[in-house]
């Protein structure tokens, strides 16, 4: 019986690609680089902002990463201002979260986005009514796909890993959930393809948030 759902944030609960692409392109502009098309950013995200900037700079021709260190500071300054740019919940997410809350399923967010910006996004879109724990990337915890954050989340919520569902939209998420010993769900409405998700053999691959309710119902009955 599942007692907890741990969600990735970007591409899983919220459509935030416009904020990410806007911020990164604004950062690249400082160095006379870019812009990069928004669709391409769906392949660049998932591993934290440092990897995002590395991929963006290399794509724009800075293969020696001459601007890398400065770009990290610039990105964070820009993202503090623009992290809510056109951000919205995916259709069906609020209904799904309400169902989990009403049925006493613990709900958590685990993101590779910097912790403060994760809080900005979660509180800005959902408020404080759903989540038992929200964690973005912090220096004290290894970033996904290392399972440490997922395991810590389960422990803090007093739930065994095998009683958790881990839900995400990228290869990083599939590796995280599976390595943490959690039944893992790949979602196809986010930033990556069904083929990518299925290649990691998660427990489930779904096309709409309502399917999470169905999974919970089947296992609970």
Automatic annotation (TrEMBL):
Source organism: Romboutsia weinsteinii
Entry annotated with the keyword Electron transport: no
Recorded GO MF terms: phosphoglycolate phosphatase activity
GO cellular component: cytosol
GO biological process: DNA repair
Any one Pfam family match given in the protein's UniProt record, by short name: HAD_2
SUPFAM superfamilies, per database record: HAD-like
Keyword terms of this UniProt record: Hydrolase
Spans through the membrane: none
NCBIfam families: HAD-SF-IA-v1, HAD-SF-IA-v3
Keyword Hydrolase: yes
Gene3D superfamilies to which the protein is assigned, alphabetical: HAD superfamily/HAD-like, Putative phosphatase, domain 2
Protein name listed in UniProt: HAD family hydrolase
Source species, domain of life: Bacteria
